Amino acid sequence: MRWDLLFGDLEAQMHAATQQELERQINELARMEASQLTLAQALRGAVGGQLSLVMCNGTAFHGEVRRVEPQWVLVNESNRSVLLPLTMILRVQGLGAQRATAASKVPYTLAAALRILARNRSMVVLDLDSSRPATLRGVLDQVGADYVQLMQLADGVSRDRENRQGSVVVPMNQLVSVASSTDNEF
Fold first, then answer.
1. What pLDDT, in 10s, does the model give residues 69-85?
2. Distance (Å, rounded) from C-alpha 58 to C-alpha 181?
3. Are 55 and 90 in contact (CB under 8 A)?
4. CB neighbourhood size of 8 (10 A)
């Protein structure tokens, strides 16, 4: 009878050691998988939820995450949509543990999203990365590979020819945010 207890105890110890090793391997695989996740995948898990995103220039946006692509996130903030380049995000608050891969096989680049705004002749407000607050208001005339050309307009005026204040070219890597009315979907 003592032998049965001894063998039973050895089997229990072996089973416990095997379980611990298996759990250690599973935890390591989970850590390795998590290390491969991108910010876009983390943000995609929050689509439909509310987040606060603080940009590199200190501007904060609070709203519902509508869409996430590899280069940008679209947030609805009350009566406007704000397109935020992922490279300009300083921190995100309110993000849970949910993660998601891309729903679309064809990712929309930042330039593609901006071309939609240019095609629709949508009024936009560009917030730029600079040492001093820099905001431009107008209509995107042209979207190049790495720049946008904006027809500037005075605040609160229509797009009539007499309200134009000139044109400005902005490198795309200087865009912190692009805000437009919520009517403009990407």
1. 999 999 999 889 999 99
2. 22
3. yes
4. 10
> pLDDT grade, residue 14 (50/70/90)?
confident
pTM of the model as a whole: 0.77
Using the CB atoms, write b or e for 88-121: b if 16+ within 10 Å: bbeebeebeeebeeeeeeeebebbebbbbbbeee
The tens digit of pLDDT for each residue in 153-170 reads 876 555 555 556 689 999
How is residue 144 written in tokens? 């190049």
| CATH classification code of 39-181 | 2.30.30.600
Q: Give residue 175's region: left, alpha or beta (phi > 0; psi -120 to 50).
A: beta
Q: Where are the domains of the chain?
A: 1-36, 39-181
